[in-house]
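Data availability (excerpt). All sequences and predicted token strings are deposited with the supplementary files. A representative entry, DNA (Cytosine-5-)-methyltransferase, is shown inline so that the format can be inspected without opening the archive.
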Amino acid sequence: MHHRASPEIFRRAKELRMKLTPSENILWERIRANRLNDLHFRRQHPVSKYILDFYCHQYRLGIELDGEIHNKIDQKARDVAREEDLKALGIHILRFKNSFVIQETDEVLKLILVEIENLNKSL
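Structure token line:
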């Protein structure tokens, strides 16, 4: 489940859990404690050398929330490489912009459920 995440990654994940961004906090309040169709999500979950914003182990689904920095060319390249690494570990990634999560939370939840339905069909 953690794919050999280092103690340092676990420490950083713990720090990040203590200071969620506004969009992370909004989404977490809606999906925590199995509030989204009885699905269990973890926040700031260590996987290998990465920390996923949210992770559902049952479907091997990571959810990443992107701020403005993710619009920069060099960050986009890092995001692509990160997704390829995670895909090689069997983890599927959904990405949402912070602004979309804040403005269209219900739509984000619907998209997550659609993705889970699609993943469920492929199992």
